[in-house]
Amino acid sequence: MELTLSINPENTNAMAFLEFIKNLDFITIQEVKKTLTATPNKTQDSLHTETEVVEEDENGIPLRDKDFILELSRKTNKAIAEKWDSYFDLK
Predict the structure, then answer these.
(1) Would you call 11 helix, strand, or coil by DSSP?
(2) Distance between CA 24 and CA 38 in Å, rounded?
(3) Which residues contact 46 (CB under 8 A, 6 or more apart)?
(4) Residue 20 phi, psi dihedral angles, 5° rounding
(5) What is the value of pTM for the model shown?
């Protein structure tokens, strides 16, 4: 069964309840990150929030972007190594 709860972070009882349920082995918690976006044909005053569940790996990298980030990291490391080699005349 899937259930969505909204917790008010300013309420101490709500935060205590959240800490309690985090310790239960049969509960999994997914935090929802909110992004602030503007609608195209409206003014800056009409900003609204959209909720999006972002699944992350154990290092905090979003799963949908993980391959892109790792490939970018490999390319950057390779470019740095080539510049390092040419600077110190290692090749």
Answers:
(1) coil
(2) 39
(3) 38, 39
(4) -65, -50
(5) 0.39
Q: In which residue are the tokens 């300013």 written?
A: 10
Site of tokens 């005053």? 45
Distance CA 75, CA 67 (A): 12
Q: Which distant-in-sequence residues (6+ apart) come within 8 Å of 53 by Cβ? A: 30, 32
Instruction: Classify residue 63 by its DSSP letter.
Output: G
Residue positions counted in the chain: 91
The pLDDT of residue 72 is: 94
Q: Which residue type, as a one-letter code, is found at position 69?
A: I
Start-to-end CA distance of the chain, whole Å, equals 60
User: In 5-78, which ranges are E strands?
Assistant: 32-37, 48-53
Q: What is the mean pLDDT of the chain?
A: 80
